[in-house]
# Entry
Amino acid sequence: MLRGSLLEFTRFFFKHITGRDFIISTPLGCESHHITVARELTKLTRLEIPSQRLMINLPPGFGKSVLVSMWTAWGVAQYPDSNFLYISFSHDLASKHTYFIKSIIGSPIFKYLFDVGIKVDSRAKDHFATDKGGIIRAFGSGGPVVGSDAGLPGLDRFSGGVILDDPHKPDEVHSDAIRARVIRNYQETICQRPRGPNVPIVFIGQRLHEEDLPAWLESGNDTTAWDMVKLQGLGVNGHALYPEVMPTDKLLALQQKSPYVFASQYQQDPIPAGGALFKPGWFERLDEEPEMILTFITADTAETSKTWNDATAFSFWGLYEIETLGRKTGVMGLHWIDCVELRVEPKDLKDNFMEFWQSCMLHPTPPEFTAIEKKSTGVTLSSVLGEVRGLSVRNIDRTRASGSKAQRFLESQPYVAQRLISLSTHAKHAVLCLDHMSKITANDTHRHDDIADTLADAIKIALIDKTLHTLHNKRNSASDVLSSLGAKMRRQHIARTNRDGVR
# Structure
């Protein structure tokens, strides 16, 4: 029974290895994705897909790695000399999966049922052999895949394969260089690893970018055509594909709060080239300016005044507590009080900023500080402003950990989608800002992003890192201490007055 059914094999050995039941999804109105994936992998094993190239796109957390790991062990159970290459976005992740496969093949019950086990001297997690000549190795998709092949030559039966399990790392896929390296590595090394025409390559994983490896394969760039299966987290019937893990209400909330993640990772349909990340309707319009807790400025500086380069942008922000029906919600919002976009020479940056700052100082809640990106002209501006009395400057450092520009915009998107950013209805800068934000894309096809940078920095400071909450709390604590001290002094004065009988 286990040899004949990958799904039964999976249920049996998942329980045996983990002690937990393998839950097969029960969606309304469509087939379980576990059944779909198992059937497609079975067809590969039986050589029923002529091209021996299979792409399965499905959301994260839907059991893809478990299924493809079980498929590997199931292949060894039937053909003990099979050779597999297991490739993920990092060597460590691939090793984690091959170790799981090793625990299945190395179990006594596997040996008893299928008369195959792990070779005695195979102690590594990422490279081991069966006692019947099979080999399983782990690799990272960004590095060279050398020294091992998949499958065996000259056979008219299954003998292993190449597994690509999420070759892109979500927080790196928006880097053009890293994404291109993964695709190039597939072209130059990975697709050369199968030893014969009957040796399959399986891609299984989520979509992450409109120019990722699955997009490249789907566009016909590979030498062989691919069979494709796309499984969406939320079906066309409006029901969840895996309700036991990701029910419909959670998917709908994700769609509203993080549209790009929902479209790409859960629906396998990244926003097409030129598709906007920010919709104007997500920015709340207020008839009255809210009561500010504190205010601050973010600045993004450009290199020159040439119109084909990015401009310099200054934005003035207010942090406030959102109210609904006259009640405070405990949720913080950002009000876009003012914004200017300029194209000036670096030598004129200080004068233009000082003019903007002075106008902000007329606000009932003057700005506490100015945050400036630490780049060439920004460093210069930060330095000269540091000499101005009463003007506090914070430097924004860009590091590898802070991610690419696209990552920062994607990180900001959920906060805008949740309508946490507001503008006054008749603000003079509203049209400028909303028009600019409606052109920002995930694939960097937009022309300018200076204003968007000031928004992303403001959201990072106020809503993601929440550094302003600490500043506000410290200021309130100091105010409470002064109030307490003042009250104590008043009590002492009254006591002396009563004692001395003096009014």
Notes: The chain has 15 helices and 14 strands. Residues 6-266 form a domain with the Rossmann fold fold (CATH 3.40.50). The chain has three domains: 6-266, 280-465, 474-503. The two ends are 100 Å apart (CA to CA).
